DNA sequence: TTACAGTGTTTGAACGTTCAAAGAATTAGG
DNA sequence: CCTAATTCTTTGAACGTTCAAACACTGTAA
């Protein structure tokens, strides 16, 4: 709950400059709109959310279409719990299979089924088109590189 | 559900270039990490999520600390339903009050209470510090302007 | 060998968001 | 006017995510 703790004195605060405020406002709009835009499009296409598609895409590129849960979580930036629930959903649809690894009995491998693979293949063109439409068609080549660097800086831990 | 519709032929797809892929990967990480980072910090500070803080911030700057639901939804980029639930939560805490407008009886005004205002005041310095830490301290002044333009382009409808 | 810390994964309840539906008040057109 | 379309807001169920707790297995070190 609330902790009224060592807060900086209001006078000492380095408030945002005008251009920082503007950037922050726009960034917030992206954070709110982009994920739901993709979720909406993918849901319409195949009742999928963006992170689910991404996980399937990762799996489809992995050797044997198979990855350790931990590896997926790291690549897709998901918590173990979130991934576990997510894989559960995909499993229920028959798109992914779970089976324990042979060497380390703690680890679970997630494998894309043939149907799962077919779904990714089917969805990929549309998804790429959407990414273009919602992101890259709106940017110059220079801005794409700027975005890479900016996003990498922000996403770094 | 699934609709196997006019999908572009796989051969015709304009796949992402190498640098677009990189930008997309980094952007995805931002979309996943930044919101939960802020939610975590605000939750720890006062059991609030980012959008709730933003709504309170908007209200705190409005004349009479009061705004129509529609106006908040537009500014904060929230669906009517999402906002209604959100205001309900803030109301339950005594930070916001709901009352019907006098001229148009359909519209509801949300007003920040004294306690609500105090909370925003108390949280603002910490929040600004967090925004700096997670975003602007990581960017050059030039990148801040680039971010403004890029984010505005992506967020545009 | 046993104990203990660490790793990999799951579980279920609590929470915030979405979605479709609805109600209530206003506006526009005939 | 009267009706129909539109606007503003809420509701509740379904869904995905978070969080804390738990369990099983591995590694380590006494």
UniProtKB/TrEMBL annotation, chains A, B:
This is MarR family transcriptional regulator. Residues 20-156 form the HTH marR-type domain. The lineage of its organism: Bacteria, Bacillati, Actinomycetota, Actinomycetes, Micromonosporales. It comes from the Bacteria. It holds the Pfam family MarR_2. SUPFAM superfamilies: Winged helix' DNA-binding domain. It comes from Winogradskya humida.
């Amino acid at each position: 709950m609330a902790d009224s703790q060592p807060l900086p004195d209001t006078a000492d605060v380095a408030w945002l400059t005008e251009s920082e405020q503007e950037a922050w406002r726009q960034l917030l709009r992206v954070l709110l709109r982009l994920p739901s835009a993709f979720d909406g499009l993918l849901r319409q296409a195949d009742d999928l959310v963006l992170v689910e598609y991404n996980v399937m895409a990762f799996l489809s590129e992995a050797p044997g279409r198979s990855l350790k849960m931990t590896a997926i979580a790291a690549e897709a930036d998901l918590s173990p719990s979130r991934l576990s629930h997510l894989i559960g959903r995909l499993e229920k649809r028959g798109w992914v299979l779970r089976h324990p690894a042979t060497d380390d009995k703690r680890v679970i491998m997630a494998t894309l089924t043939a149907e799962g693979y077919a779904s990714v293949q089917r969805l990929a063109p549309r998804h790429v088109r959407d990414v273009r439409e919602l992101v890259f068609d709106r940017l110059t080549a220079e801005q794409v590189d700027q975005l890479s660097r900016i996003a990498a800086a922000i996403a770094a831990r």
